[in-house]
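User: quick one, sequence for these C-alpha cells?
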C-alpha cells in the first residue's frame, strides 16, 4: 500500500499539509466539509502537491517536515513538482 504526504491550497491561499493513502479522495473529503477543521472554513481546497512513500512512517515524517516549512518554502516546493 502506498502512503502520501500532501498539500492543499485553500481558498484564502494558505497551504494545508496532511497524510493520506489516497490524496485525491482526501481532497474530496476536505471539500465536502469532512476534512480537517482548518480547511472547513477555507473551502474550496485544491490538491497542489503529493509525495508517495512505501511506508506510513516515512509519509508521516515527511508531513511533519512539510509543516515546518515557511509558506515561501512550500510554494517553492510546489513549483519544483
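Assistant:
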Amino acid at each position: 500500500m502506498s502512503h502520501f504526504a500532501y498539500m492543499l491550497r485553500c481558498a484564502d491561499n494558505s497551504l494545508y499539509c496532511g497524510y493520506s493513502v489516497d490524496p485525491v479522495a482526501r481532497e474530496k473529503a476536505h471539500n465536502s466539509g469532512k476534512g480537517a477543521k482548518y480547511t472547513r472554513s477555507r473551502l474550496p481546497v485544491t490538491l497542489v502537491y503529493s509525495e508517495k512513500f512505501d511506508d506510513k512512517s516515512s509519509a508521516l515524517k515527511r508531513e511533519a517536515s512539510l509543516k515546518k516549512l515557511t509558506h515561501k518554502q512550500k510554494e517553492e516546493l510546489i513549483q519544483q513538482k
